[in-house]
Amino acid sequence: MITNKQLLEVDGRIAVAREILAKSAKNMTTENKEILSMFDSILELIVVLKNQIAVEEYKRGYNDCL
To answer: Domain spans of the chain?
Structure first.
């Protein structure tokens, strides 16, 4: 089972990674900015998957109470 603390840690790490990407993009060429954009898309996919896991964990906990 995944805990809320673990899910929040993922949120924090993604926020830090996005901040680093944004700072890095300031002095980069267009090609490198496109690469950073791909990394940001991967981070967004991780967020979607994390949210899906959170919903499933919530459902599992709710069903255990029934």
So the answer is: 4-65
